[in-house]
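Take a record:
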Amino acid sequence: MDELTLAVVGIDFPNEDKARSNRRFELLASAIGDPVTLRPEPRNRHDPHAVAVFSARDVQVGYLSAERAPLIGARIRRGEVVRAVFQGLSGSVAYIRVRFGGEPPSLPPLRPDAPAQGDDFFPDPDGPDWGA
């Protein structure tokens, strides 16, 4: 599990900065393949396992889902090098592609026979390997 697609949730909540920056707007301004940054938030008042996701312009766009954040956060805290890119947006969820080990993540090719997912979502060809 060195490379996988992860959901980014909370994209419709405003950020708590002075400008109350808009997460969805920032995602709409992002191009597929733009780098994103993952930052564990052990002092998060709602979830000590929370991992925030920031755009290439350093605007928070949401959080990793609560199911994946503990695993991903633990790997980051262990010092594993992680690189991530924006993969797409579908409805109320954004998707990022993450790769551990320092190499850039690769976006899965969109299958020509796959139904349209909307908003440039690229599903993994074999489905998720983590059983969710």
Summary: The beta strands are 3-9, 35-40, 51-54, 60-64, 82-90, 93-100.
